[in-house]
Amino acid sequence: MSNNLRFKTSKFIDETYRVSFKFNNKTYFGFKGDTLASALLANGIHLVGRSFKYHRPRGIMTSGSEEPNAIIQLHDNSSRTEPNVRATEVEIYEGLVASSQNCWPSVNFDVGGINNLLSPILPAGFYYKTFMWPASFWEKYEYFIRKSAGLGKSPKVADPDIYEHNYIHCDVLVIGAGISGIMAAKMAAKNGFKTLLVDEKSYLGGSSIYDNSEFSKINNQLTSSWLEKEINEISKLENLEIKVRTSVAAYHGYNFLLARESLTDHLPINQRDNKVRHRLLKIRAKKVITATGSIERPLIFDNNDRPGILLSSAIKKYIDLYGVACGENNVLFTNNDTAYETAMSLIQRGIKINAIIDNREQVDSKICYEVEKNNIKIYKGFSVVDTYGYRRINKISIMKLSKDGQTVIGDKTKLNCDCLGLSGGWTPAVHLFTQSGGKLKFREEDQVFIPDVYPSDQISIGSCNGDFGLEEIVKNTLSSTKKFLNIDNSEYNTVEIISVLSQSKRNIWLLPSDKTIGKTKSFVDYQNDATSKDIKLALREGFRSIEHVKRYTTTGMGTDQGKLGNMHALGIISETAGTKMGEHGTTTFRPPYTPLTFGTIVGRNVGEFFDIFRRTPIHDWHVKNNAEFENVGQWKRAWYYPKENENMHQAVQRESKAARDSAGILDASTLGKIDIQGTDASEFLNRVYTNAWSKLAVGKCRYGLMLNEDGMVYDDGVTTRLGENHYIMTTTTGGAANVLGKLEDYLQTEWPELDVYLSSLTDHYATISVCGPNSKKIVSKVIPDLDFSDEKFPHMSFKNAKIGNIKCRIMRISFTGEQSYEINIQASFGKSVWEKCMDAGKDFNITPYGTETMHLLRAEKGFIIVGQDTDATLTPIDLQMDWIVSKKKYDFIGKRSLYRSDTIREDRKQLVGLLTENPEEVLEEGAQIVSDVKKSPIEMLGHVTSSYYSPNLKKSIALGVLKSGKNMLGQKLIIPMENKNINVIVADPVFLDKEGKRLNAKL
Amino acid sequence: MFLINCPFCGEREQSEFKAGGEAHIVRPKQPTELSDDEWAEYLFMRKNIKGVQFERWNHIHGCRKWFNMVRDTSNDQIKAVYKMGEKPPVK
């Protein structure tokens, strides 16, 4: 390629700093300041990727975040690889490695290109229509469809980069540092507002910073020079923070915005270690000024997607900002004055313009004459009807537009070119405004949607508000910002503007062709290969809602969310359907504006910080003693303690046997503990539990069941009466926070008259449960001063005690059915008391056991675990726990629901025990229970909720819920498994010691 | 994300709060006197309207107090907040 594609006139490119990079395994050079796109263009490369569906060759189309085609894979096969990156946004650095996506074996020769030839049989909705039958084949289709779906490759190894989240509070947030953003930020900061100015690019000034045209001047200076001075001034303002490379991703209600600040992506890889890569800014702004600019529209005609076809504004930016010519023989195709600015930039550098094709019959602004003066042929009232060249455009054909713009007439003329610039006018970037809940209105004159109703304290200024001429932008920015910030005076009051562009435009959403539409490929959504034909097909097939058309044709559903083509899609829909633009509304612009990496979203919450976890005061002992842990809510609980080579089953069997044969010890610190005080404490408990509490003597404990108002079991636990007006309630580990919340809710909202105070003590106490026939001997050794005799300290009672000088509470309560003592002591002493118990229990083979053994032991006794054996569809009656539901109490939470027509049904699912015919066979929890496997469909009668092999009973036991289970005792049922049917017999859920003798057993 | 003016703590992020459904539904004093239908009305029936709605909110990660809010569900504008037991402001 020739070298004269780079023009050494740009101050934004540092030509003394050469940067080498690799694209598709070939080394190229660019300069510091280049984007990957500008560096590739400088090397004569347009073809960078293949399209999604038809695998058509695609080139760089834009110069910013709206890029649909030039999306590439960065650093393939490395831990820092990233797919779908816009080449137009990547700043090059030494060692950058980029490759094309969605092509094989290479971007120049892609086997998938066959899809382009097959395109007549790949219409909109192809997948929906084709892969429907036979339904059973879906699994086979899916494999191939998934393989061909998606563009880039996701990383395979952990991300080495660091990400973080930051909160920012400011008075005024200005989004976009183009000319209006700079003006607004300066006005805000100078008037005492704490201001934050952000821009997604690496430089400030937007497109005005390279506007060196003699035809638009501010205070008789070039726009770029004037703006440069402004930028220089604002960078000194104390009240103003400026963040570049910061893209606002989302604008939520109440002026809450998310932005991604990119900190290392422009640095060579070896300079990135230990630095934060992206920062997710959570911005809460009192006032927001949106100055996000506008995006140039392409034009929609046959084969409008070839490499070498760019937006005219992109061609201007590449030459003015990067000093790169996109072609050596250019044609511009426009329906407004914008392309003439591009033409002037090219003319100034002596770059050849073969012709300008203008839709308009009348072209009469000063800049157009100026272009014409340079002997450039302008085809007025013409349209491009086709383009040629496979990997790069080499020709176009043009025809005259009819008066109404609906057809093309006359002869077809062919023109040579290697670059075609498109300008279809401008679309205000209202994405963030609509995300915030703003309502748009449609402006007929130039066919744009502009902000109308603001949902929060915000304004839009500049071209995102529909002001396109320099004079309008500056004047309206000044007046809107003054009003918005309540400012009287501004130095901008006297600014003088010269601007010679006219705002005339001839808008034709879909340009006519000499071919029938079925023979054309006029791309509306470049990234998803959605054509005007597809949209018309969707309408013919009956789709009317813009949201449905979008999903059916996938228009606007790519990573660029249709920033270029959405407006044309709307235009074509309303033209075809014969409705007015604006009537259909627009599709929803959803966050993020440009894609965020997962790292940015997750921030520091990775690895051990992924989620909060809570450790008991005895945690370190469990770790030291080889415990395996399980997560219960946020808690890490000891699950079992394997010895030597024991597996889980062996460890649990040993622990379970030891607890019943002699002594076991459990860390129960995670149980929720709620301190309840006040003169109405007893009455309060009466209302929240199903059973009666008034008569519970001080020093006694009682098991309670708590329901939801719908009558379903919510939580359970033992509550102890510590004093006349003082109780301590225990809750399940997982339910602690919710139970406290529910109790607070009732106290504050339904029963504010009750004198009751609640405090959570869960973290304050360590709870050590010692159980088994030898438990009494062990706790007696730990607390020798306390009388543990059954007479003085019977089951379900409590004593205050001391271990050394440390006060503790001892509850004699049991979740295992064994004689059992719970020591509650200040958390910081938990570990030492645990060790004391271990020491005292040495002679009795005291065995620490975890949650798994706890579950097994309680299942032997038929005790439920709320959340395992219950699932918010079971009443206490369903659980065969009628004994705990007071008949006498007038009311308690959920009482009325226990005799609703639905809850008194006999055929509800009820808790039962299940015994397998073969006592060695252990059921799977969750397995279905049926009576007849031959019936089709098989009727599901219930399922297994808990299942274990009991070493104490030497057989398999299980709990389950079963339709009409109460009346099915002794019946044979079947548990159908993948390879076999297991026969079971319905049994009493209490498998061991129904009389409760073991609670007082003496050895 | 809303900014909610907790009547006890002042303006805080929505993430500190928990929504608690429709406000001013009083638990019947004598549930046992109610028919199944009347009880079901209290238990299950909620309005969930588009427009101005009275709601319960809890400053769960703050003062833990419940309070009421008047919110326009169509645009998420919070019209008023007031303490439990206080009379709702007129629409």
Give a short overview:
With 1003 residues, chain A is an alpha+beta fold.
Describe the structure.
- The complex is a heterodimer of chains A (1003) and B (91).
- Chain A has 1003 residues and is an alpha+beta fold.
- Among the domains of chain A are: 14-117, Ubiquitin-like (UB roll) (Roll), CATH 3.10.20; 162-294 and 428-499, FAD/NAD(P)-binding domain, CATH 3.50.50.60; 308-424, 3-Layer(bba) Sandwich (FAD/NAD(P)-binding domain), CATH 3.50.50.60; 613-636 and 650-670 and 762-780 and 810-862, Gyrase A, domain 2; 905-999, Aminomethyltransferase beta-barrel domains (Elongation Factor Tu (Ef-tu), domain 3, Beta Barrel), CATH 2.40.30.110.
- In chain A, the strands form 13 sheets. In chain A, strands 8, 9, 12, 13, 14, 15 and 28 form a seven-stranded mixed β-sheet that branches. In chain A, strands 41-42-43-40-34-44 form a six-stranded mixed β-sheet. A six-stranded antiparallel β-sheet of chain A has the order 46-47-48-45-50-49.
- In chain A, strand 32 (628-632) and strand 33 form a beta hairpin.
- Chain B has one domain (3-83): Folate-binding superfamily (Folate-binding fold, 2-Layer Sandwich).
- Chain B contains one helix and six strands.
- Chain B has one helix at 36-44, and strands at residues 3-6, 10-13, 18-22, 52-58, 66-72, 77-83.
- In chain B, the strands form two sheets. A four-stranded antiparallel β-sheet of chain B has the order 3-4-5-6, with no helix packed on it.
- In chain B, strand 1 and strand 2 form a beta hairpin.
- Chain B starts with a strand and ends in an 8-residue tail after the last strand.
- The chains are: A alpha+beta (1003), B mainly beta (91).
